[in-house]
Amino acid sequence: xxxxxxxxxxxxxxxxxxxxxxxxxxxxxxxxxxxxxxxxxxxxxxxxxxxxxxxxxxxxxxxxxxxxxxxxxxxxxxxxxxxxxxxxxxxxxxxxxxxxxxxxxxxxxxxxxxxxxxxxxxxxxxxxxxxxxxxxxxxxxxxxxxxxxxxxxxxxxxxxxxxxxxxxxxxxxxxxxxxxxxxxxxxxxxxxxxxxxxxxxxxxxxxxxxxxxxxxxxxxxxxxxxxxxxxxxxxxxxxxxxxxxxxxxxxxxxxxxxxxxxxxxxxxxxxxxxxxxxxxxxxxxxxxxxxxxxxxxx
Length: 298
Fold this sequence. Notes:
The protein is of the alpha/beta class. The protein has twelve helices and ten strands.
């Protein structure tokens, strides 16, 4: 499998991008489906969309989804109608959903265009930063007849995000490396979804200014950065993946000090309410590294 496919799979299992939110929807559709008593049947075309719909109470309305939609547990029972490479259009036609929610960055555009031509109501999910998650939660809740629950979930999310940002805003910055993929070694830069974790947790990314959001690099490029902490997200869904063997490079401070953090890639990379828990846990783990480094320095 080519690297581009592997990375897209990783971000589908887990996710991508960083800018302003763009939810595209038909205004008449929005008006039609926003009534509380209206509970439309839904095909959700990405794992993070499925997760959001369960968060707002619309999980039981999902009648079809794509590969890797495995959270929460009951999502595993939803019929599969394709993956990020191709959708089974005949199955979609057979299911006749009232609403299709697609991922702007992760679904085949030609299939989506065909579904629109066939008259299906298609709207797009496109969360790019944490605050976008709350916006989408509210929007999806409104469309599916769960506005009140959506508002509760969104407000709680916004309050917790603000609290995390405030907790770490004055912390001492340390240098970190984010291992998105191991073969070839791939990291993150400005414009990537994971970069905001570093921004909030106060970690300097030596590759932040690279033009591409997910640059491939060599270990020789990592060595001069004197990385103090390594973030190596791993997913239970990717059994074939092996993390980079950092133990071969004991001259890196993070390796010498045993500061390699391995968070849940699914929670880190999926743009959902759960990503806030991943953010909180990561910042706390990085803060422990910060304390260890300060003790060594003293």
